[in-house]
Amino acid sequence: MTTSMARKTALAAWIGSALEYYDFFIYGTAAALVFNKVFFPAADPATGTLLALGTFGVGYLARPLGAFILGHVGDRFGRKKVLVFTLLLMGVATFAVGCLPTYATAGVLAPVLLVFLRLLQGLSASGEQAGANSMSLEHAPDHRRAYFTSFTLSGTQAGQILATAIFLPVAALPQEDLLTWGWRVPFWCSAIVVVVGLIIRRKIDETAAFKRTKAAKLPVAVLFRTHWADVLRVVLAATIASVSTIFTVYALSYAVNTIGLARTPMLWVGVLANVVALAAIPLLAGLSDRIGRKPVFLAGCGACAILIFPYLWSISIGAYGLVFALGILLFGVCYSAINGIWPSLYGEMFSTEVRLSGMAIGTQIGFAIAGFAPSVVAAIGAGRDDWIGVAIFTAAVCAVSATAIATGRETYKRPTAELGRLPQEAAAGASLGR
């Protein structure tokens, strides 16, 4: 596998993921800041916030179903078809959110349409990362798989930066302008996302590993017959995404709506943390290419479990300096040790013929659980001083994820052709090849 092809694929994955997840995360920011007033004004403030965050979680409901469908397409017909479809669906659904009527003009139809479009976003996201990660991994040299696959996730962080940054001037608008037309602008910008993304993704080449593989008629059936334990392990490990959803959605809502901190500084916490993550993700992924996936991933889980306590405490006392420092350390550095590693860690558990299905189904079920974490912790921590319960919940999720990976096998030294095979199977294959 040539390094130039690996770089080209990693760059395409980075740009595509940045554009795709810009769409996905502007919804989360809007849910935290304005949707409780625009789509659920009839409810009291606390209930309205809970309902708005619930619509964010609804997007994750479609992801397991989408993972089965798009996983089948990707393993049966190719990764490229999945990547083009997901970007197009995400862009159309996101643009449509910006065109929705509000509760004041359409009544209950407005939140119903909002939920439907969020489901379409979730369907799109279900195949995005698994497709991009599979393609990057299969194009990468054996000894640098984590480094090259990590660009999909650093692209995701770039999408979060764009999503948060575009809300900075919007959030600074007068309240009336924000609630009437201001919140719509970031969603309308997705029209640009669709055009740019489709141009990029149509130029990606299918991987040689996929071309050499005889596709199964039902890849999912093969997956659950041969890799069911790995799918379960990925499901449990992927719940670590709760750290991301709690940081980006719940903590923002808690700071602004419960504690009363200013919107703009809290948005900047997310921007700066993600800027740091852009550098940290490939560096930590490269480290795992040298010392192994498990040590880096487990260290990230432990650090996140610890740092969530002082981070939420700093928000509760309104200490902006601590909020910035701890937020950047928690999300920009420590969570990057997880984010930079999981594309290779999960992908290396599966063989080529079921890799996209295995990654998509495992991660999307885990992400679906994580998607409702902001709603769960909003119920736990509805008051000013309830942050401890939220931190304990987050730390428990970190422990579950760490346990799932600690009990799995290390794969960073295995050749790509032998991934997803038991050691005795790999040895037999090597013997036959001599």
From TrEMBL:
| Residue ranges of the TM segments | 21-40, 46-70, 82-103, 109-126, 147-173, 185-204, 231-253, 265-284, 296-313, 319-338, 359-381, 387-406
Main location, first listed in the record:
membrane
- Keywords associated with the record: Cell membrane, Membrane, Transmembrane, Transmembrane helix, Transport
| Recorded superkingdom | Bacteria
- A GO-annotated cellular component: plasma membrane
User: Which residues belong to any copy of the Major facilitator superfamily (MFS) profile domain?
Assistant: 9-413
Localization annotation: Cell membrane
Topology in the lipid bilayer: Multi-pass membrane protein
SUPFAM superfamilies of this UniProt entry?
Answer: MFS general substrate transporter
> Could you tell me which InterPro entries the record lists for this protein?
MFS, MFS_dom, MFS_trans_sf, Sugar_transporter_CS
Quote the PROSITE patterns the UniProt record gives: MFS, SUGAR_TRANSPORT_1
Identify a single GO molecular function assigned to this protein: transmembrane transporter activity
Q: What is this protein called?
A: Na+/melibiose symporter
